[in-house]
Amino acid sequence: MTEENLYLKRFLDPVKLCRRYKPKFGLGNREEGLDLARFLLIYGADPFYSWIGLDSDLMYAAHKAAGGMTSVYRQIGKGCENLFRQIIIDRAGYEDPKYAMWSYVTKTKNDKDKTLSLDARLELSEIKNLEVRGRVIQWIADYSSFLNVPAPANGAVFEVRQGYKSKDSKRQNGDIDNIAVAWANGYLPVFAIFSSQIDVDLLLRYRNSRGGMLIGTTSGSNQSSLFVFCQEILGYDLAAFFRRNSEEIKSEIYTTLAVLLSAD
Predict the structure, then answer these.
(1) Does residue 142 carry a pLDDT above 90?
(2) Closest CA relative to residue 133, chosen from 143, 142, 123, 118
(3) What is the full DSSP assignment across 62-124?
C-alpha cells in the first residue's frame, strides 16, 4: 500500500462506519439500534404514537439523520486523529508507533484510576529524522516563547479535532486539565483543529491557559495554521493531500450522507 493510500484509509475508514448507524430510541448503548421494520413494529404498537402518525418511514429517517449527523462529525474527527498520528509516525521515523501515543492516569471521584490519552505525540528523544527533530525543537522553543513559558524538555502532545465550536464547559475543563498535566510531564500541549471554525473566546481561553492552538487555515504561520505546521515542521503537505483526494473523499461523504438520510 502506498503512503497516499494508507493516509486515505486512515482518514476514510472511520467515516464509512457511519453507514451502519441505526437510531437506538432509548435502548441504551449496548443495543445496536433499530432497523426500520422493528421501529415500525414498536411505534405501531404504541397507541399514542400510532394515533398521531409517528409510526412512519419519514419519522425513522428523521431520527436516523439526526443521530447520524453526530456520528459523521465524530467519525470525521476519528479519521483526522488517525491521519495526523500516522503522519507523525512516518515523518518522525519512529521505530515503534507507541511513541506517537501519550496517556496519563488520574483519579475519579470514587478514588479509582482512570487513564486519559491524547491523540498524538512528538517525542524528541525518539525522532529519528534529524531534520524533522531539529525543526520540532526550534518550533517548540518558539511556541513556548509565544506562550511566555520555558520550553519543555520532552516534546509536544496533540489533541486532534475535526472542528471545535462547542461551548461545553465540561469538555473545556477537561481540556484545561490536559494542558496542565502535559506541562507537568514536560510536553507542550497543542490542539490541532482541522477546520478553521473555532470560537474566538475558546481560542483565547486555551492560549491563556498555555495551550497551543493550530487551526485549519491555509495561510498564517506554523504557530497558528495546522496545514502550515505540517508542511514547514513535519515536512508533509497535508493541504495538498486533501486537494489531491478531494473528489474521492467527497464521494465517500456523499454516499454516507445519502445512506443516513434514507429510511432503509
Answers:
(1) yes
(2) 123
(3) HHHHHHHHHHHHHHHHHHHHHHHHHHHHHHHT-SSGGGG-EEEEEE-TTS-EEEEEESEEEEG
